[in-house]
Automatic annotation (TrEMBL):
Compartments (UniProt record): Cytoplasm; Nucleus
Name of the gene this protein is made from: MRI1
Organism listed in the record: Phialocephala subalpina
Keyword Phosphoprotein: no
Family per record: Belongs to the eIF-2B alpha/beta/delta subunits family. MtnA subfamily.
Alphabetized NCBIfam families for the sequence: eIF-2B_rel, PRK05720.1, salvage_mtnA
Entry keyword set: Amino-acid biosynthesis, Cytoplasm, Isomerase, Methionine biosynthesis, Nucleus
Protein name: Methylthioribose-1-phosphate isomerase
Pathway terms, separated by semicolons: Amino-acid biosynthesis; L-methionine biosynthesis via salvage pathway; L-methionine from S-methyl-5-thio-alpha-D-ribose 1-phosphate: step 1/6
Chief location of this protein within or outside the cell: cytoplasm
MF terms (GO), sorted A to Z: S-methyl-5-thioribose-1-phosphate isomerase activity
Residue positions of the active site: D286 (proton donor)
Function: Catalyzes the interconversion of methylthioribose-1-phosphate (MTR-1-P) into methylthioribulose-1-phosphate (MTRu-1-P).
Site entry: Transition state stabilizer: C202
């Protein structure tokens, strides 16, 4: 299904990236035609989200190669050019592993194309290398969409299966319930289930990926299947990916939803536990390491602690491109620290006296004493013990005998 909203648009030789700093007020695509522009776009967070970062980096270099900006007809010079550009892009943001996984893949495939290009004609060898790079970059983009769709399907099924059947009488017009025959009970009488409400953090939707999204992809799928009662999203301070981006996506998709500040999560769980039946917190991932410890947007860890305290499931939606098998545990993850102005200043569209938002008039305003010291880690690490399930495109990751997540079972080729 095409969900319309696209952070990244690509065709041979042309890459357009939606400027997410202007959302939700303006919808402007930037033409990204060099690695330097891609670096700046990623660093300034005009594009963000682990998969989207990797895709933009890969496609920006593909665009350069399509226009032959490497300016060489020597095979070895071209390989060196590609590696140099990829090393440079690697420095744009450190925590999300999708970027380094994509770069690793692109380097390996470039090297392979160079070795396979036995033609004595160096110019022809360069054509093959460029073509291979462009093909792999495009595949990273396209595979991400298919991966998200599978995560959505697995995640919706995982959450749906958590709901016990309702035994009390439910009227036909109560929209908080759905009726179905449970899987594996074909022919059994229909049973009634309560719809699912979830809380999500940061932005993991179409804007963070090639489309559909991971955690937000699961929410979309639940909604498409009529299993979703309500989606709550956090504001996600300090950068407000929740209020600026996720709220926008939820409204755009007409998904029943409510925005809360990060500090309201505990109260939400307590206040609405029975009435709204919040089944799970669903988040994305920037880097999941071998044991399942997961780096994600700052504030994720506290939601996991709160979920545990309230008996609510905590679910991570992560493509295997977000998995880092080189790190044993989360202590080894490098957390990006960002500028203090992200806490002390804020941007927004001006609201007129009539209460109307003037989308053509945006301003940056100070919201704290500019001299205060600031600590601004962009991510935190949730220990695997607090995670009930990690949903990948291959389904929920099983656990080993020690209770750690067992990625070997789902991705033996990378072990
Ligand atoms: O700083 P950001 O906006 O790039 O952080 C994004 C997140 O933390 C997302 O949850 C994560 O990248 C997964 S996106 C599918």
């Amino acid at each position: 299904m095409d969900h319309g909203l696209k952070a990244i648009k690509y065709e041979s030789g042309k890459l357009l990236v939606l400027d997410q700093l202007k959302l939700p007020h303006e919808f402007v695509y930037d033409d990204v035609s060099t690695c330097e522009e891609a670096f700046d776009c990623i660093k300034s967070m005009r594009v963000r989200g682990a998969p989207a970062i990797a895709i933009v980096a890969a496609l920006a270099l593909a665009v350069e190669l399509w226009h032959k900006k490497d300016g060489t007809s020597k095979k070895q010079d071209l390989v060196e050019f590609i590696n140099r550009k990829l090393d440079y892009l690697m420095e744009s943001r450190p925590t999300a592993v999708d970027l380094s996984n994509a770069i690793q893949l692109l380097k390996t495939q470039t090297q392979k194309a160079a070795s396979d290009a036995t033609a004595s004609d160096e110019t022809q060898a360069c054509v093959s290398i460029r073509e291979k790079f462009i093909e792999v970059a495009k595949k990273i983009f396209e595979d991400d969409l298919a991966t998200n769709q599978r995560i959505g399907m697995w995640g919706a099924e995982y959450l749906r299966a958590l709901q016990p059947p309702v035994t009390s009488t439910v009227t036909d017009d109560d929209f908080r319930y759905y009726t179905t025959s449970p899987p594996g009970t074909q022919g059994a009488p229909d049973q009634t289930y309560r719809k699912i409400s979830v809380l999500t953090h940061c932005n993991t939707g179409s804007l963070a990926t090639s489309g559909v999204g991971t955690a937000l992809g699961i929410i979309r799928k639940l909604h498409d299947m009529n299993y979703l009662d309500h989606a709550y999203c956090t504001e996600t301070r300090p950068y407000n990916q929740g209020s600026r981006l996720t709220a926008f996506e939820l409204v755009y998709e007409k998904i029943p939803s409510t925005l809360i500040t990060d500090s309201m999560a505990a109260s939400l769980f307590k206040t609405y536990k029975d009435e709204k039946n919040i089944t799970a917190v669903i988040v994305g991932a920037d880097r999941v390491v071998r044991n399942g410890d997961t780096a994600n947007k700052i504030g994720t860890y506290q939601l996991a602690v709160l979920a545990k305290a309230h008996g609510i499931k905590f679910v991570v939606a992560a493509p295997t491109t977000s998995v880092d098998l080189e790190k044993e545990n989360g202590d080894l993850i490098k957390i990006e620290n960002r500028a203090q102005t992200e806490l002390t200043q804020i941007s927004g569209a001006v609201v007129g006296k009539d209460g109307k938002v003037d989308v053509n008039h945006t301003e940056r305003v100070a919201i704290a004493d500019q001299r205060i010291n600031v600590w601004n880690p962009a991510f935190d690490v949730t220990p695997y013990q607090l995670i009930d399930s990690i949903i990948t495109e291959h389904g929920p990751v099983p656990r080993n005998a020690k209770g750690k997540f067992d990625f070997k079972a789902i991705m033996p080729e990378r072990w």
